[in-house]
Amino acid sequence: MFKYLLFVHLALCSLILPFKLQSQDVVLQKQILFIVPDSDTNPFWHKSIQFMQAVAQSLNLRSESLLYSDSSRNRFLIVDAIKKQLARESKPQMIVTTFAFMAEKDVLQVFEEHKTPFITINTTLTPRIIEEVGLPREKYKYWLGHIAPDDMLVGKQLAEYLIQHVPVKKKTMIGLSGSKIHSAGKLRTVGLESAVKNNDVVTFIQSVGTNWTVSEGKTKTIQLLKRHKNANVNIIWTAGDALAEGAIMATEQFSNFDAGKNIWLGGVDWSEKNIGYIKSSQQFVSFGGHFVEGGIATLMLYDYINGFDFKDDTGLIVNTPLFPMTISNVNALANNIKTEYWPKIDFSMLSKKQNPQLKRYNFSVPKLLSLELNN
Questions:
Q1: Which residue ranges form the domains of the chain, and what is each CATH number?
Q2: pLDDT at residue 5 tops 50
């Protein structure tokens, strides 16, 4: 067993139904693989996996998740791990994955060789990626589509929200960016920079890169607050909620900072821990909702392999709008994103295969989170 493979999680093993017999033929339950460029301890990916599992369950799909340890995050080990999954006798019929670690071309070629339909999610298709591999169904016919937020816009929206709504006149901001190997981190930072450039309302001091973790969010925030101790910092922009969590922990190390009272923080992801921080006013805002992308991709792949192509409905590239969660709407939103409720929801009502009368998809976050529970 290679060390780089953290685990392959049989996500729905307790939910797999017995084989069904039709015309004396055994019909195997179709399988979908969700490839995550992180470990299950990452709050965003943990929530994303759970949502995709719930959607797969509604469609009677068996789902697995392939996750990576810190030591395995390079293109060669990841591509090799994917090859092993597709070489299995019970290989998946469809895949949801992301682009990461500069492995786009290698991953696309593997899926093409194995003739496995897949949809990519979460990361923006940068000019570099498009120049190298094109767009879905151009050079690689099994790359069916792409679903992702506009990370540059999200970074800008978060900064603008903090600038406009933090209740002090003189605003001074620092930033915690994501990893340089992820386009999301880089693009959100570009959005931040565009929001503060030539902005007379806020003084922007500095942003620093991180590895997206809570511990690094804490460490980097402590360093920044000490380095700029005379700058009267009162806003911390973070590229992800794990960083915001670390930043909140960092402010607790200083007697002159009180999160939510004289220093305000914003992040991205709607992570469970951070929802609690928003309820207690320690975090000012979190933009999120994109954890549904894996579930949307599952619905689209399921319909595609059953003869319902989505290209003339959604197009091949789907942008996921993100929404701000604040103290004013946190209770309503939090009730709808409790992971224990998702397995009770019948997401198949959003499938054209299951509902041929359905003319157009509605994959908006409010729609997905407002579906009624099964009795």
A1: 5-148+291-325+339-368 (3.40.50.2300), 151-288 (3.40.50.2300)
A2: no
